[in-house]
Structure formats: structure tokens, C-alpha cells
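Contributing new records

If you add data, match the layout below exactly. Sequence lines come first and carry their own label; structure lines follow with theirs. Keep one chain per record. Anything else will be rejected by the validation script.
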Amino acid sequence: MLLLLLIAFLSGLFTIFAPCIWPILPIVLSSSSGGGHRKPLGVTLGILISFSFLTLSLSYLVRIFNFDPDSLRLVAVLIIAFLGMVLIVPKLSAIVEGATSRLNNIFGGRINSGNGFWGGLFTGVSLGVVWAPCAGPILATIAALSATRAVNSQVILITIVYMIGTGIPLFLFATFGNNLLAKSRRLSPYTGIIQQIFGAIMIFTALLIWSGYDRIVQVKLLNLFPGYTDIIYKIEQSDQVQKELNRLSGRDGVTPPTPKSFLPDMGKSPEIKGITNWLNSSPQTISSLKGKVILVDFWTYSCINCIRTLPFVTGWYEKYKDQGFVVLGIHTPEFEFEKKTGNVEKAIKMFSINYPVAQDNSFTTWNSFNNVYWPAKYLIDRNGHLRMQHNGEGKYEETEKAIQSLLAEDGTPVTTEVLSMPESTPTVRFTPELYLGLNRLQALDSNERPKRGENIFTIPAIINENQFAYEGSWILTGEYGEADKESALNLNFYAGKVFLVITPQGKADLINVFLDGAPVDKTNQGKDVNNGKLILDEARLYEIVDLQGSPGRHTLRLQFNDKGIQVFAFTFGE
């Protein structure tokens, strides 16, 4: 028991570093910033008392009084927002102070002695209602015993020790907020303005909590700072702690169940909808796949960032598909030619994709998920709830560990080993992606002002770093530049590899490739170039330059032998 109490205290002590507590810290700081030296104590005690009380007794109260527990959260949010308004509106503040003064007289001066303790306690109680800390095994056991109305003196003692650990750093933080104005002479003239700013912070945070967006913020923070979760869970999941928790729960001699995933619950997942066509599968929805762990992967086949993630995505699917895991590849086109089903089918074959792929040509599912990135991954549990989101490349090991944890939630035995394959995410700052159409034209180095339609360009004497230059006759549209015969495209870049999204006019269209003024050769040509020539076959991403792992500053020149070739965007790699 002593070990469990010690771990509970340490877990509570380190809660201040957990991203799940950060959304309420602005309110703690704001509400403690004035009102006397005892107000931080009131705020801290209020949080600890209300959270402990509700954790241990809410299931009993709901059973006795038959009310919706969410109503408490709504009341708390309204109180926090009201207290924020008090800080912002002087007249409202005067009314509240008058009412407090009258109550103080009625109760013989015991309500408010000028130190703000009771006001802080009132605010803290509201915060304790809306606070949902990261539930490790200890707190999860307490919550489970409370929900089944199996609370005893040991459970209460562990909860108190956990809250004491939480309260120490929380009190220090609240005291800092209190001293911020009280002891800073430089800030004293601006006390009124600062309190109004704090009031606005309280109202804004209350709106986040009311809308449920605070949970999404927590998840994003957990993804950015996973260290806390890893450390605490390793401690709380040790054999000795698990043995004590089993004893506390009356499970002595019983094989402990698979622990709940460390991933937070972001609520019900958006649905897959508005799909133009399904490839590799009949139509799928999140609801129809209930009981499976789902990875929703937003991608498009000409995006180099997406392409670099595909070996991991396809590897995860093949590894875990027989254990209740499925990938839904949501192909949302960046360019118009990527909407063609035939092009997507070729890409599926090229990248050995065997999982269902949906053509989201109208961006309906993209907007349903409020997505803004290629690539982006959303991990959904067996109950259809969103549990993890990651934008861009990287975090492959973390993502696979998250998949394993969700698969294990129903007791499925899952290996803890992760895929072993080289990661190609760039580690050096290369030339950024360069779009060649007018809609996103930002890096054109030109003597002429480009316009929609036909243009005649002359090449500058020197092309600036990380910029490109059209040369000769070009037709420009919103998405691409269309070359005339003998026109050229010039680029000053820093990278190890250069890729270009191209749509040819016909089969076997030809582009001559020059690097630093000389034709590319076997030492520096990309896999799609042969003997200094890029022979086009279809609309896709072409690898033009490969410096064999030696990135550097270079100039590239593409000489077009055929009319009508369309170029969309340069991307770069290591």
C-alpha cells in the first residue's frame, strides 16, 4: 500500500507537466492574479476538493438524483465565463463586490476578510468540475471503482494523496499569478488592463471547454509533448504497482486485463462521405467498420511527402490487418489530373497498396475532418472515436505504438516490435516546395510580369536562391505552366533530390536535363532520367536529380523538346 501511495503522490506531482492540465492553467493564473495572498490557496483547494469529490461520488449522486452529469460541466463553464466578465466590466465587478460585502455583513465578516480566499475557492471548485486529467492506471482504477460504487477507505486515501501531489505545483503556479501584479511595480500602473486581459483569457478558455475543443487541444499537446505520458505510464504500469492495483480492485490472483490505451479520447470521429469512387474495396464508412481500429490516411499520389510515408502505411496494414486493423486511404487531389481514376489506380499498383482507397475529389471527407495537410493521419478506435492525429511525415514509431495500444484494448495479443525500415523524412532544411501555376506562384524570378495565358520570358542573368525562372514561350494557368517547344525551366535549389509533377502532352515526350550547365549523368541523375533525358509516360511525380546523399546548392535547367508539357510543382528531398 505504501508503494501505491508513493506512486500516486509522484503521479500527482508531475501532473503539472502533463498537457491535459495546461488548458486550465490560464484560468488558474488569471483567477489568482488579484484578491489577496490567500486566494491561490483557495483556487488550489477548490480544484482539489471538487475534483476529488466528484471522482469518488458522482456515480452515487447520479443514481440518487438521476441527473445528467454534463449539466455540472455546463454550470462550471458559465461560472468561469461570468468571473471573466467580472474582470473585464468594471460595473459588473462593482455589483459583485457590493453583493459580497452585504453577505460579509450578514455573516459577521467571515465571508470576505479581504484576502480573496472564498472567491478563489469558488473559482477552483468550478475548475475542478471541468478538469479531466490524464488518466493513468492509478486514476483509472479509482474512476472504475467509483463508477461501480466500490469506494472504500483505501481508495479515498489514494485519491487524497494523488491530489496532494497535484496541489503542490498547482499552488506554486497560482501563487506566481497572485504575485505577478501584487509585487511588480512596473505592472502596477497597468493593473486594470492586465486584469481585463486575464478576464478575456478566462472567457476564451470557457468557450473552448463548452465547445469541447479543449479536448482536441489536449490531444495536439500530447502529440507535441509525449514525454510525460511515456514516463508516468512506465512507472504506473510496473509489475509491483499493477499488483497493488489488482489487490485494491479485488483481483488478486487474476491475470490483469490489458491496460487501456494511453491515447486520449477526442470524441466521435467524423464520417467518410462524398466519395467519388472506391478502389480496392466496396464503399466503407467509420460506422460500418465498428469493432476495427482504423487509420484514415489523407494522401495524393504526386505528393512526395505522401509517397515517403506510404512504405510505413502499407507495412502497418499488412502487419496488423488480421488483428482487426484497417487503413482507409483518402485520396484527395492537389491537382486536377489527380482526380482521374486511372491515374490513381496506376499509383495504387505502383506503391503496392492493398487497402481500400477512396477518391475524395470534392474534398467532402477532407472538410469533414477539417483537414489541411498532405499527408495527414487520423487513428480511430474500435468504438469509432478519434484517438490520435498526426500531420506530415515522421513519428512512425509513435504511430505504430498507438496502433498497437488500440488493438490491445480488447485483449488482442499484439507484438510490441515496430517496423524496421529506413526513414526518408528530410533532416536538412531544403528548398521549400515551389508551385509553378499562378494560384500559388511565389518563387518566380523573372524579368517579365507573368499573366494568365501566353507569356514570353527571358531568363535573368542570375537566378536567386530557391527560385525558378521560365524561359521562352509559356502558357500559364492557375495550376500549371505549359511549355512550348524549345522553352526552358530553370531552378536554383538546395537539396539532394529534385522532383517535379508533370503531365505530358503525349507518350514519349522528351525533356533534356542539365545540372550546373552540363547534362546530368549516372552520378547525379534521378531514377526517371536516362542519359540526360527525361522521357515522360503519364501524369505523375518524376525524380529528376539524385545527388546520392550529398545535398548542395545547384542550378537545374530543363529544356523542353515537345509542346504542351505541363509542369505543376517542384519538391525536394535528401
